[in-house]
Amino acid sequence: MIEVQSISKHFGAQQVLRDLTFHAADGQITALLGANGAGKTSCLRIITGLLRADSGTVRVGKIDVAAQPLAVRRQLGVVGDREGLYERLTVKEYLTLFARMQGLTGERLRQSLDEVRGALELEDLWLRRTRGFSQGERMKVSLARALVHRPQHLILDEPTRGLDVLAARLLRRTLLRLRNEGTAILFSSHVMSEVLELSDRVLVMAEGRVVGAGGPQALMREAHCDNLEDAFVSLAYGSQREQVEGEPA
Ligand SMILES: Nc1ncnc2c1ncn2[C@@H]1O[C@H](COP(=O)(O)OP(=O)(O)OP(=O)(O)O)[C@@H](O)[C@H]1O
User: Fold this and answer.
1) Comparing C-alpha atoms, which of 67, 65, 70, 55 is closest to residue 19?
2) Sorting pLDDT into bands at 50, 70 and 90, what band is 248?
3) Where is each ABC transporter domain found (predicted)?
4) What is the predicted pLDDT for the residue at 202?
5) Does the model's pTM come out above 0.80?
6) How far apart are CA 22 and CA 184, in angstroms?
């Protein structure tokens, strides 16, 4: 479970997160929907420990991110908005490096590498250096890096951006399988069809707060809309914006 409790964040004079509270449960896919600049990436970066909140707490699997960032990283897989591939390394070398940094050795290391190579269809790329990889190839390697230590929690920032149909489909299939295995998945997206297909729960963010939360169907009912895009527009750009999710997770 990922628990975000009353986090706030300023950049200079700009307040980007305002007393933000929500949770993402194990065995569920939770989507963060919000306009450009709503604060999704800032929020995800705080959860992963890349950015510090001004106030509030984040717990991943009950561990406080600010107090024990390394312990949290062991439980967390992250596919970020900036791909950090090491272009001189082959896929195998790159994933081995990250798996070792997560403490995997010997048979466990070998098994984990075999698993991600098969699950993400990396066979043809395995011994290639990542320099010049296409967007879809880079995503597959990033996702493999995020999953190689079998984390209980997975965070993805706009994961299907720039992917072709087959790569996006592989990603969606992988997320649904992980969800069914009990992983807590939190992802941001602007693609309504993808959010509708994948999400058990949607958090609509506007101006650094959650202004709507629930299953896609429930959000549509709440907004009196028959599609998610209209419901999102109504909730995110409606005149009355109140934080609706204030309960401790
Ligand atoms: N390091 C930073 N320094 C200054 N301002 C920042 C920084 N990071 C984010 N911001 C600002 O905070 C606001 C929220 O940005 P953030 O990237 O969290 O939004 P987002 O919801 O992910 O947007 P998008 O959908 O466009 O990716 C934006 O106005 C952005 O310019």
Assistant:
1) 55
2) very low
3) 2-232
4) 97
5) yes
6) 13
The amino acid at 106: G
Side-by-side strand order, sheet with 55-60: 14-24, 2-11, 55-60, 63-64
Q: What is the ipTM of this complex?
A: 0.95
DSSP 9: E
Predicted confidence (pLDDT) at residue 239 exceeds the cutoff of 50: no
Protein fold of 2-83+151-237: Rossmann fold (3.40.50)
Query: For residue range 17-61, what is the model confidence (pLDDT) as tens digits?
Result: 999 999 999 999 999 999 888 999 999 999 999 899 999 999 999
Distance CA 166, CA 98 (A): 26
- Is 185 in contact with 24 (CB distance < 8 Å)? yes
How far is 222 from 21, CA to CA, in rounded Å? 20
Closest atom, ligand 1, to C-alpha of 51 = 1
- Ligand 1 centre distance from Cα of residue 36 (Å): 8
| Ligand 1 centroid, distance to 39 Cα (angstroms) | 6
Q: Which helix (H) or strand (E) holds 170?
A: helix 165-180
How far is the centre of ligand 1, averaged over its atoms, from the C-alpha of 37 (Å)?
5
List C-alpha distances in Å: 37 to 40, 57, 146: 8, 22, 25
> Hey, what are 8's tokens?
């706030």
pLDDT of 7 above 70: yes
Please tell me if the CB atom of residue 34 comes closer than 6 angstroms to any atom of ligand 1.
yes
